[in-house]
């Protein structure tokens, strides 16, 4: 199994800067990747009531493809 490129502790702005294609995933999940992008993915997911593992799976799938 490949190592995850994106982890729950990474800051959203850093992820979108490195992988612009992730903006679409954040948008689909209702996570603010613009103004709220200065927080870690886990914190943003919790605020939106999302399962962080599901979000991470989607993010890593898009950067791995």
Topology, element by element:
Blueprint: H1 12-18, H2 22-28, H3 41-48, H4 52-64
Note down, in words, how this protein is organized.
This protein has 65 residues and is an all-alpha fold. The relative contact order is 0.25. The protein is globular and about 30 Å long. The protein has helices at residues 12-18, 22-28, 41-48, 52-64. It is 54% helix and 0% strand.
Task: Please provide a brief summary of the model.
Helix content is 54%, strand content 0%. With 65 residues, it is mostly helical. It is globular.
Strand content: under 5%
Helicity level: 40-55%
Structural class: mainly alpha
Please, how many helices?
4
Question: Termini separation (Å)?
Answer: 15 Å
Largest pleated sheet: none
Shape: globular
The gyration radius over C-alpha positions equals 10 Å
Strand count: 0
Name the helix and strand elements from N-terminus to C-terminus, one letter apiece. Answer: HHHH
List low-pLDDT spans.
Answer: none
Mean pLDDT: 92
Features:
65 residues; mainly alpha; globular
């Amino acid at each position: 199994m490949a190592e995850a490129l994106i982890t729950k502790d990474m800051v959203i702005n850093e992820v979108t800067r490195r992988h612009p294609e992730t903006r679409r995933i954040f948008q689909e999940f209702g996570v603010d990747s613009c103004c709220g992008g200065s927080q870690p993915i886990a914190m943003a997911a919790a605020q939106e009531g999302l399962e962080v593992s599901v979000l991470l799976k989607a993010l890593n799938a898009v950067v791995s493809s």
